[in-house]
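PROTEIN DESIGN WORKSHEET
SECTION A - STRUCTURE
LENGTH: 366
TOKENS:
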């Protein structure tokens, strides 16, 4: 199968349309995406699986105190793991450039990709808003920041995300064959122009607005207002209650991961949509957009590996739990050593007493 004839990506958005009519005009060599995808996704699978399994173990087994922040984090872990479990199928497809697993698994894979992408964005936004309420409005937000309300928000996020990702995956013909001469079956690519013209242009507007632009603005605005609050004299006077250095580090890590993972892909996606609708014309523009797309996608998928970093820096509860485990392990080693020394000492005293008793008995009998 020649890669020079493929203009769509392995993860080409469902609104990309059938591009066969453009092959003679803007022929592109995009073969680099397959080894890139297979390598990056293999790494993401291993690292993402290990870090998220450790995270879910800490959340379910180690944390004694659970609050609304950990509720958002647990849902984010679930979103990441659902996507990570589908990565071996994708890696197989990228290596062989053919999808042998059937249409249903392809649809599930497509749906879980968008579920993870925009679920992660929305859950990270929930964490940012929760931090904003806790620091900027600590007293007025007491009735809002409860585990019950956090569960309601998480349920709403799942409904919103699934209502967008499931139709994208299951209502579209996600598998197709290049031509009658090959047995290669595509997944995620070569969507028909009819699908694009009917409703997919509306999908990109919806997910970019609800799933990216609004959450981005919320994250930036909440972070700015938290920083402004930390600079106020009454906040400075609280001293020990608020560790400004920790909060500042938390905000920087959160914003960096959010912007690094999601801005390149979603910005490129807007230009990609403009190219597919012929709003932007020209082979050079199309070439740039299609070259950036696989790289931006790999960066976006890496959020599965970066989310556990957010868990650690955002949740002081997790940090304390890890410290308690570490201190508990050291304390156990110290107690075991002391007990061992005590037992050895007592055995030595016991042996000395027996020796003295025997010597005294022998002297008495002489």
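SECTION B - SEQUENCE
RESIDUE ASSIGNMENT:
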């Amino acid at each position: 199968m020649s890669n020079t004839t493929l203009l769509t990506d392995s993860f080409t958005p469902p609104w990309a349309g059938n591009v066969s009519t453009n092959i003679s005009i803007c022929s592109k060599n995009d073969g680099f995406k397959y080894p890139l995808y297979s390598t990056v996704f293999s790494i993401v699978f291993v690292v993402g699986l290990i870090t998220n399994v450790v995270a879910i173990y800490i959340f379910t087994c180690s944390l004694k105190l659970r609050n609304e922040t950990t509720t958002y984090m647990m849902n984010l872990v679930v979103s990441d793991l659902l996507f990570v479990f589908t990565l071996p199928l994708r890696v197989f497809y990228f290596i062989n450039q053919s999808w042998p697993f059937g249409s249903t698994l392809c649809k599930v894979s497509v749906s879980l990709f968008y579920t993870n992408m925009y679920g992660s964005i929305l859950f990270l936004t929930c964490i940012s808003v929760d931090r904003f309420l806790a620091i900027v409005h600590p007293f007025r937000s007491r009735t809002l920041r409860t585990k019950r309300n956090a569960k309601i928000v998480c349920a709403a996020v799942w409904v919103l995300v699934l209502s967008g990702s499931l139709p994208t995956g299951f209502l579209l013909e996600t598998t197709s064959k290049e031509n009658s001469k090959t047995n290669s079956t595509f997944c995620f690519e070569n969507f028909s122009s009819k699908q694009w013209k009917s409703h997919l242009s509306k999908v990109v507007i919806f997910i970019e607005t609800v799933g990216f632009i609004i959450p981005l603005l919320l994250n930036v605005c909440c972070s700015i207002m938290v920083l402004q609050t930390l600079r106020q004299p009454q906040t400075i006077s609280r001293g020990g209650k608020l560790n400004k250095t920790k909060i500042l580090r938390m905000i920087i890590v959160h914003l960096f991961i959010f912007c690094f993972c999601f801005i390149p892909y979603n910005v490129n996606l807007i230009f990609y949509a403009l190219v597919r609708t012929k709003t932007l014309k020209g082979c050079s523009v199309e070439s740039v957009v299609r070259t950036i797309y696989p790289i931006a996608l790999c960066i976006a998928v890496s959020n599965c590996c970066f989310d556990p970093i957010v868990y650690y820096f955002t949740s002081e509860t997790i940090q304390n739990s890890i410290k308690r485990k570490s201190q508990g392990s050291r304390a156990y080693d110290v107690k075991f050593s002391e007990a061992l020394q005590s037992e050895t000492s007592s055995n030595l005293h016991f042996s000395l007493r027996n020796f003295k008793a025997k010597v005294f008995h022998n002297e008495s009998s002489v």
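SECTION C - NOTES
Strands lie at 175-177, 185-187.
The chain has two domains: 3-314, 324-366.
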